[in-house]
Amino acid sequence: MTEQGSHEFVTRSSEVEYTGAILALRVDEVEMPGGRLAKREVVEHHGAVAVVARDADGRIAMIRQYRHPVGRRLLELPAGLLDGGPDEDPLSAAQRELAEETDLAADRWRVLVDLVVSPGFTDEALRVYLAEGLHQLDAAEREDEEADLVLEWVPLAEAVRLALSGEIVNATAAAGVLAVAAAESTGTVLRATDAPWRDQPTAFAGRS
After folding, report:
1. Which of 18, 113, 129, 187 is the most buried (most CB within 10 A)?
2. Is residue 19 part of a domain?
């Protein structure tokens, strides 16, 4: 008998059942403790980035955007997919998304927190940046859901209250808001933008 917590979960077979525009569904057979093979469905997804853009008054730039799967508008952080291929730089993607969704740029960037979104069934992972030293850009052209989004400036304390009261339910937004508050209250030094990102997904982008 192997020591508890030391089993190596080897993938014995793998089949891609579906490939779409932003995800693929893969079914793996994985060796469990004791030798049994179990099927595990894995949704491959692009990685993503999000931005906590904070102004000189401590307010956070948030967007209210319609999300079709839940059928309503959610208060979120500016965010987007790393859909430019496996070599796309996450920081560049974050800067692009901030400009496209809020017409803002930032002079100072740091890594705030890394997230694996729902590791029970998907490899989707997301890096959240803190952006400061904000300045205005020309208005971007927007289409589809983004043509209807609204920019809202939310004080950090109010954003924390909204997350804890269930008003902010987007997982990335809640994590980003609470991470900023925690870093501020503890004096934690945030990582540089070139910090390693261990869980950045590559499988789906590699199929393109």
Report:
1. 129
2. yes
